[in-house]
Write a structure and sequence with these properties.
552 residues, Rossmann fold, seven-stranded mixed β-sheet
Length: 552
């Protein structure tokens, strides 16, 4: 007898899981397998909507196997035309035991030829076959293409299969390769019948039955009943009728068929999904992350920006707090940051909290990445992809590689915007303004001392009376002002130059850190997040397919 191999009450949940697997897998699943799975979901929705009180059983077989004769014997009526040599069943016929409510189901099956079978004295649903819809299909080996297509269509829709063969054709490759092997896992809804048993001696019939059972098991149907019948003598017909009555009585053959289909879809799609994947949070090692950020920073021109920031700092420091006589010339030198299209010290910074300018995209004047920098970026992203996709099937590994390598133009723009939008922290230190004021005072003192001395010299040269010159210790005050202003100004200028170099290096390190953080965000957004999304999708598809398989 047919056996229930799987629990079927969770068909809806398993179908939902299959839909989730298809959504998560997307184009990473093999297109043919995905298309068949979507067709299954469509069929499942329709079958769940239709009558669950009827069991659709299909008699399928090759030309001359006696399938139509067996159909008539089961129905107890001459409903199907029996032919001796050529196929006579060109269109499926249906015999109904209790046809109330079966019309929408038959409309869905597109079976126009319908016959109501009496209950043989039984009343209502007392007939063990009440609720049976028995279909006589065209021959699956017919020379008419339309006949074979009709068989293929209905085989995908019926609840129970009864494959009828005969002693001459039971090993036919078309039956086993095109049909039985494709139904592996559908043991609970499959019966194989060796008809025309009356043509052989009993020992020969059993030998053929055992050989057929071996072939069926090799097809993957290891728990399927193989019956022997004779439509002419009636041998085995009652056994087959009882088999069908048992399937009808369960009222679950339709869900068992759908459950087996879901199993098959899970197995087929599962061959395109790996058994595991790296955690999306661990797609790179510390070394690979550092190499990725460094490669992106180099391509973004971070070293050039850092050098410009250091030069800008020294220029601004010496121009603000340097020796006043030479500072004006420094201010006339080109601004290294402006040459890169970035704001320099003392200008409005591109801070994240600054007033936004709608619909305005600022760009720097940094040069585009050269071939060496591009190759370094490609190498770093390839390492990320190789690590993330090492345990994935080929289609998923290809998807990881595609996700890890954004278009070069888009990446260049993103890196440029990361640099432009980074707050470089170029605010001028207050101490430089203070030291600049001190330098101005020292210069003023030196000038005052010089003017004083010149005035004294002029008075002496004109033989005019000279005022008394004040002294500070042994030094005349005018000389002290001149020499002290010059010496202290020079010493302070040297200290400013030294401090400007140290400050430039500190600011450069700080700016490098900020730019690297901005570049790391681009790497996360453009590489790591897309790669992580592929891995998340793989995990979702894998876990959904596990739920499609259901409890065993």
């Amino acid at each position: 007898m047919m056996r229930r191999r799987r629990r079927t009450a969770d068909i809806g949940e398993r179908a939902t899981a299959l839909a989730e697997a298809l959504d998560a897998g997307g184009h990473r699943l093999e297109p043919g397998a995905a298309q068949r799975a979507r067709a299954l979901l469509s069929k499942l929705d329709e079958r769940l909507r239709l009558s669950g009180d009827h069991t659709v059983v299909a008699l399928a077989g090759a030309t001359g196997s006696g399938k139509s004769s067996l159909f008539n014997a089961l129905a107890g009526l001459d409903l199907a035309t029996v032919g001796a040599r050529r196929p006579t069943t060109s269109q499926a016929s249906a015999a109904l035991w209790g046809g109330d409510g079966a019309e929408p189901l038959l409309d869905w099956l597109v079976v126009p030829r319908r016959h109501q079978v009496s209950s043989n004295g039984a009343r209502g649903d007392a007939d063990p076959l009440h609720g049976l819809v028995l279909l006589d299909l065209p021959d699956h080996d017919s020379t008419e293409v339309a006949h074979r297509l009709e068989v293929d269509r209905l085989v995908e829709l019926v609840d129970v299969f009864v494959w009828v063969t005969d002693p001459q054709k039971y090993a036919d490759a078309a039956l086993h390769r095109q049909y039985l092997s494709r139904l592996a896992g559908h043991d609970a809804v499959t019966v194989v019948v060796l008809n025309q048993a009356d043509r052989l001696a009993p020992d020969a019939v059993q030998a053929c039955r055992r050989d057929l059972a071996r072939l069926v098991a090799a097809d993957g149907l290891r728990d399927v009943d193989v019956l022997t019948t004779s439509a002419r003598t009636g041998e085995g017909v009652d056994r087959l009728r009882a088999e069908l009555a048992e399937a009808v009585g369960r009222r679950t053959a339709w869900s068992e068929r759908l459950g087996a289909d879901l199993d098959a879809a899970a197995v087929e799609l599962g061959s395109w999904v790996g058994e595991e994947e790296p955690d999306a949070k661990d797609v790179t090692s510390a070394t690979e992350s550092r190499d990725l950020v460094e490669a992106f920073a180099d391509a973004a021109g971070v070293p050039a920006v850092v050098r410009a920031v250091e030069a800008d700092y020294r220029r601004d420091a010496l121009g603000t707090a340097g020796w006043p006589v030479t500072r004006w010339g420094r201010r006339l030198r080109p601004d290294p940051l402006r040459r890169l299209g970035l704001p320099g010290a003392g200008q409005v910074s591109n801070r994240a909290d600054a007033e936004p300018q709608a619909d305005v995209v600022r760009r720097s004047s940094l040069p585009a990445p050269n071939a060496t920098q591009q190759a370094r970026v490609e190498l770093a992203t390839r390492r990320v992809a190789d690590r993330a996709g090492s345990k994935l099937p080929q289609r998923w590994a290809d998807a990881v590689r595609a996700a890890a390598q954004p278009p070069a133009g888009d990446l260049t723009d993103a890196l440029d915007q990361a640099v432009v939008r980074t707050d470089l922290g170029l605010r001028r230190p207050v101490v430089w303004r203070f030291l600049g004021a001190v330098q101005a005072l020292l210069l003023l003192a030196a000038v005052a001392g010089l003017v004083w001395l010149v005035a004294l010299a002029a008075l002496g040269a004109l033989k005019l009376p000279q005022p008394s010159t004040p002294y500070w210790g042994p030094m005349p005050v005018p000389t002290l002002l001149l020499v002290g202003g010059l010496v202290l100004g020079a010493l302070l200028g040297g200290l400013v130059r030294f401090a400007a170099g140290a400050g430039a290096r500190r600011r450069g390190a700080r700016v490098r850190s900020r730019l690297n953080a901005s570049v790391a965000e681009v790497a996360q957004e453009r590489v790591l997040d897309p790669v992580g999304q592929v891995l998340t999708d793989h995990r979702a598809a894998r876990e959904a397919l596990r739920r499609v398989g259901g409890p065993r």
